[in-house]
Amino acid sequence: MSDFVVYVIDDDLDVLDSIATLLSTSGYEVKTYHNVYEFLESKENSTPGCVLIDLVMPEICGIESMELIRKQRLFYPVVMMSAYGDIEKAVSAVKLGACDYLEKPFEKEKCIKAIEYARSQLNEEGGPADADSQEYLELYDNLTRREKQVFHLIADGQAGKQIANAMSISYRTMEKHKANVLNKLGISSATDIVHILYKNQRPARFSERRERRLSSILSYSNSH
């Protein structure tokens, strides 16, 4: 039996089958559930692992599902999934404890990276998170003042027009700044910005210098 299991909760059976196939062929042990109640009632959820949960489901949403799992004292890292690319909900999910967020449909590499990050949260040393955070700190320093503003407004869940209004610039100019941010950080979508900011608020281990640098970045959104 594997010492790490990926538990997948989604109301769409086709999605469950697709994710199970993708991950099992990549060497992961996968268990699938139609809703969080099936997961909690299962006798096969005791092996440490991570939980992939769909954000939008008819019976009970992903955030509520995550809270129920916590109440059962199953403190597995949670990766939230959504087909809607809703930045505001992504921010809420990560703030409430999800360790990552995947926008469906997602590439195999991105899914595996999210799972490996989740696995690192079960590891006392937390090595992968430390390396990723240092890389993004260095890339963040290459952003202009305006680009940093866009970065933090997106991370706060603001939509494009709201960002343009807040910065007193045109929508087209805002889109240009946003494109520059994505390009400089080497990411492909606005939801990746949520990953960077909120994952780096609570890395497993950081040197004093990195902690100070992260604090200054995270406080930026409150002062601009």
Overview of this structure, please?
- With 224 residues, this protein is α/β, with parallel strands linked by helices.
- It contains eleven helices and five strands, in the order E-H-E-H-E-H-E-H-E-H-H-H-H-H-H-H.
- A five-stranded parallel β-sheet has the order 2-1-3-4-5, with helices on both faces.
- Strand 3, helix 3 (62-71) and strand 4 form a beta-alpha-beta unit.
- The N and C termini lie far apart (51 Å).
- The relative contact order is 0.11.
- The model is unreliable at 124-131 and 201-211 (pLDDT under 50).
Topology (SSEs and partners):
Blueprint: E1 5-9, H1 13-24, E2 29-33, H2 36-41, E3 49-54, H3 62-71, E4 78-82, H4 87-95, E5 100-103, H5 108-121, H6 127-140, H7 145-155, H8 160-167, H9 171-185, H10 190-199, H11 208-223
Parallel strand pairs: 1-2, 1-3, 3-4, 4-5
Helix pairs in contact: 4-10, 7-9, 7-10, 8-9
Question: What labels describe this entry?
Answer:
single chain, 224 residues, alpha/beta, Rossmann fold, 2 domains, 5-stranded parallel β-sheet, 5 strands, 11% strand
Task: Write a brief caption for the model.
GO terms for molecular function: DNA binding. This protein has 224 residues and is an alpha/beta fold.
Trace the largest sheet across and list its strands: 2-1-3-4-5
Number of strands: 5
Q: Work out the helix count.
A: 11
Cα end-to-end separation? 51 Å
CATH superfamily of the largest domain: Response regulator
- Rounded to an integer in angstroms, the radius of gyration calculated over CA atoms is 18 Å
Looking at the structure, the CATH topology of the largest domain is Rossmann fold
Architecture of the largest domain in CATH?
3-Layer(aba) Sandwich
Low-pLDDT stretches are 124-131, 201-211
Principal-axes shape call? elongated
Structural class: alpha/beta
- What percentage of amino acids are in beta strands? 5-15%
Largest sheet: 5 strands, parallel
CATH class of the largest domain: Alpha Beta
Mean pLDDT: 79
Helix-strand topology string: EHEHEHEHEHHHHHHH
- Residue share in helices? 55-70%
How many domains, in number, for the residues? 2
